[in-house]
Amino acid sequence: MLKSKKRVSDIIMYILIYVCSFLSVLLLAGIIIYVFVRGISSVNWSFLTTVTSKLKGTVGIAGNIVNTLYIIIITMLIATPVGVGTAIYLNEYAKTGKLVTIIEYATETSASDLGPKLYRKQENYNYSKIKKELIFINYGRS
Fold first, then answer.
1. pLDDT in tens, 41-98
2. What is the pTM for the complete model shown?
3. What is the helix, strand, coil percentage profile of the chain, to 5?
């Protein structure tokens, strides 16, 4: 059994990465707790349901909430058909070229590591496996 020896620099870098990660999470938690403790007393039903107005002297975030929902809905209505149409075009009609390869790489990269794993599983799932499974479940030979 081969054991890889870790270099001292690798160990130091791992320690630095974990220390920086811990400090980042600690800082973020501190900011969230500070804002929550200082601001929770201001949040009530009228704050959530009124609109900020200098003329009426009211303060609220209802307009912000509604505008955020509008932006989300409009973005979904535009992005969903464009994304589905692009995917269909790239998979069914586009010839393999440099641009298509770049788009596929960017898509797989942005899909984290779940997308490439699923793609590789589909790629490795060939017809001989399907044939063996069909014979196994008594569909007979083709």
1. 888 888 888 888 888 888 888 999 999 999 999 999 999 999 899 888 888 888 888 8
2. 0.52
3. 75, 5, 20
Q: Token pair of 13, please?
A: 């870098």
Q: Rounded CA gap, 80 and 92, in Å?
A: 18
Structure tokens at 11: 């160990």
Measured CA angle at 84 (ends 82, 90), to 5 deg = 100
β partners of residue 30 = none
Closest CA to 62 of 44, 48, 42: 48
- The number of angstroms, rounded, from the C-alpha of 47 to the middle of its chain's C-alpha atoms is 31
Helices (H) and strands (E) in the chain, counts: 6, 2
Interatomic CA distance for residues 51 and 63, integer angstroms:
6
